[in-house]
Amino acid sequence: MSNRKTIAFLYAHPDDETFGCSYLIRQIADEGGQAVLLTATRGDAGKTGHLGEMTREQLAARRDKELDKAAEILGISVVEQLGLPDGKLSEVDPTLLREKIADFLQRHQAEVVITFPEDGLSGHPDHIAIHYAVNEVVLGGHAPTVQKLYYNQLGSYTSEHSSVLRVDGGDRWEAKRQALAAHESQVWSVERVFGVLGPKVPPGFEIESFELVWERGERYPQVNETSIYDGLL
Ligand SMILES: [Zn+2]
């Protein structure tokens, strides 16, 4: 099995990748694959946690550094950010967003794409906007290198109508914990989801789940996958 494949993580904000995909990203890196990340915004409309008041530009610069640190911990090969308006992604010209996504996938020759499900997991409008943009690019045939599309789900997830790839964190909680902690300005969101971070995996977060929603033109293929690379040509 060749693991020298490119898996693209397409999200709205710096930290979205860490919340739902740390185990998978670290596993890809450990096995010699390429995890590439595109965030639509720099997260500059977010909260600042314990860091106190900041201007949007200060928060953007801070979050760039936090993301760099998390990316290093997780082994992300490429990080690109579009710098689109945080909190207002749904107001961005959808054609522009789709073109930027298609360009990213083409330049990196991505074979697998991972993004949010249609509820954005948290219901955040930016999450929902990126979900629909990615869907239109991939399902609309504007990303010819892409063979599979997944939606990440939080924790252990099962579905009646689709196949779900489960990635056991194993000993990778420490990497996920450090990457979550690297997003220091987002500590309140981190603690709301995972509790105060410690050496033990929070209950329910032993596994990351990825719903396979599309594979080379087929919606919801019923397959039993044990690896993100299963089924790739
Ligand atoms: Zn987010």
Report on this model:
Strands 1, 2, 3, 4, 5, 6, 7 and 8 form an eight-stranded mixed β-sheet that branches. The protein has a single domain (6-219), classed as LmbE-like (Rossmann fold, 3-Layer(aba) Sandwich), CATH 3.40.50. With 233 residues, it is an alpha/beta fold. α2 packs antiparallel against α5 and α3 (94-107) packs across α4. α4 (125-139) links the parallel β4 (112-115) and β5 (148-153). Helix content is 35%, strand content 21%. Bound molecules: zinc ion. Zinc ion binds at residues 12-13, 16, 124, 127. Residues 12-13, 16, 124, 127 line the site of zinc ion.
How much helix is in the residues? 25-40%
Number of DSSP-assigned strands: 8
The CATH class turns out to be Alpha Beta
According to CATH, the fold-level topology is Rossmann fold
Number of domains: 1
Describe the main β-sheet briefly. Answer: 8 strands, mixed
Task: Report the CATH superfamily.
Answer: LmbE-like
- Which ligands occur here? zinc ion
Give start-end ranges of low-pLDDT stretches: none
